[in-house]
Write a structure and sequence with these properties.
Blueprint (H helix, E strand, L loop, with lengths): L1 H44 L6 H24 L7 H4 L6 H36 L13 H31 L19
Helix pairs in contact: 1-2, 1-5, 2-5, 4-5
Length: about 190
């Protein structure tokens, strides 16, 4: 039982480390996108020299920021939710853990699996036909940005699993009032 507990904890730690890593990359992408947009606007309005490829690259950066930042945002509980129910007076940490566990199992994981499996043919088709931008001067290798869809949702799914593990630990393993649903629990001392 102790080794199973260790394995589950390890899975949650790895998933959370990946979410943290994707968040750091996303932060740098935000900075790069800001610089790219500043350069593009300066070139267009000061020097009257625009570029379709630069504009498409801005859209691609925005898509990457959204897709890669979703797991990090979910990890830090900064995502959109219906706070009317979740933050109500009658909701204690244990009930919130139940909401997170059931919400992840019934909604988040199936949705992520649906998007991931639906995106593979989409990405594969773009790769097979060597899809490029329909606009003259646009970017090539469109399958690369399309491949970010299953990658982003896979990272979100892993973070969802980590959150579900933490929630299950808060419901079933935590008897210490200081331990809430937000921290991965330490191993039990018993068997």
């Amino acid at each position: 039982m102790k080794s199973l507990y260790r394995l589950i904890n390890r899975i949650a730690c790895i998933a959370e480390a990946l979410s943290e890593w994707s968040g750091r990359i996303t932060a740098w992408l935000v900075l790069l996108m800001m610089l790219l947009i500043s350069y593009d606007v300066t070139m267009r309005y000061v020097f009257q020299s625009g570029s379709v490829a630069l504009q498409e690259l801005e859209w691609h950066f925005f898509a990457l920021i959204f897709l890669m930042g979703a797991a990090y945002t979910f990890k830090h509980d900064e995502h959109v939710r219906i706070d009317v129910l979740y933050q109500g007076r009658w909701m204690n940490d244990r009930r919130r853990a139940w909401v997170n566990l059931l919400g992840g199992a019934l909604f988040l994981l199936p949705f992520c699996i649906l998007i991931i499996t639906s995106a593979f043919p989409f990405v594969h088709n773009a790769y097979q036909i060597a899809e490029t931008s329909p606009d003259p001067g646009g970017l090539t290798h469109r399958y690369l940005i399309k491949a970010a869809i299953p990658v982003g949702f896979f990272l979100l799914m892993l973070q969802g699993i980590a959150t579900m593990i933490k929630s299950a630990q808060a419901i079933f393993c935590s008897h210490d009032p200081k331990n809430g649903a937000g921290a991965i629990q330490k191993e039990p001392d018993g068997s």
